[in-house]
Amino acid sequence: MTQPSTSLLEHVRTHAAEALRPLVEAIDREGLYPEAYLRELGALGGFAALAPEAQGGSGLGLATQIQVLSAVGEECGSTAFLGWCQTACAWYLLQTRHAAVRERYLPAILRGERLAGSAMSNTVKHLCGIERHLLQAVPVADGYQVKGSLPWVSNLGPDHVFAATAQLPDGRYVMFMAGGQTPGVSLKSCPEFCALEGTRTLNVRFDDVQISAADILAQPEEFDAYIARIKAGFILLQMGIGAGVVQGCLKIIRESNAASTVTNAYLDDQHDTLQAELDAALAQTLALADAAERHQAPLLDVLKLRLAGAELALRAAQSAALHAGAKGYLVRHAAQRRTREALFVAIVTPATKHLRREIAELQAAPAGANTTRQPVAEVV
After folding, report:
1. Closest C-alpha among 25, 15, 92, 74 to residue 46
2. N or C: which end of the chain has fewer CB within 10 A?
3. For residues 269 and 316, what is the distance between their CA atoms, to the nearest angstrom?
4. Cα(127)–Cα(102) distance, rounded to whole angstroms?
5. Residue 210 in 3-state DSSP?
């Protein structure tokens, strides 16, 4: 790791301990949206690592960005997910061939001056054949007119922006930027979740929204190649969330062992075993992140790693609760929060069942087959 990367991670950890740790209980139990912390993290350079200096970033790389998210997740998995939303949107902008839209949004997102969501869950599931596409578009004079509704988009607000896709009448797709302030876009509350209520997750409705050419990330003829460029990074960034949650679980195990080492020794998934698995997963993550920046990360390896990360988070959270014993069953104990955060890592898109399906299909596909997308038929 380079000295600048080490310095950034030290600053992020110190800042998270000072500014985020006191908020965790309110984030988890009261649904506090940590907007001020996110903006401070952006000012610290916490969203800028994945972009080169020429694009407004620090040039430290995707691997460092993943480690930043992990450092945040050590304190709060929910907030690490918000960091993922922010950096995923930045990653999309970084990969577009359209300089105007990148220059319009990317620098402010990297600095945390503009907060951003991803809005790609439906797209990713649709392209894997899991669900129908929820946003529809028709071409108009200066772009597209979009209608439909996305049920869950996180890190949103009236002045936030997000990236999304819409399907055209001919079955092709366009990807674009929009925001809570875009005419025709409305943000509605969602049913209450059991966790991550502090992520400002909202229903986004499009009522004949005009998307101009200036906000296009990928035109239909570019779409497949563009999705192939962003997919590995999109998934690898999520490893930062999972790694942070696992590190938080390991802290609970260490603290529990200080008081009850003898009986805890009889539990499965001991601290050192989990730590070794995490270290190996992180090493593979960082290597694949470097390859993803060159568009050379094997998708099958990325999917398998992401699945292993989700399974490790679940095991670590269960082990943390068991190590804590009766104390770990208290509502306010960190083991309860970590259990819910780990479950989220396993169900956020691409979820465990999604990953297993896509892995199976890639393994069964003939060599050289185009597996970029396998959309389901639209419901009439």
Report:
1. 15
2. C
3. 7
4. 24
5. strand
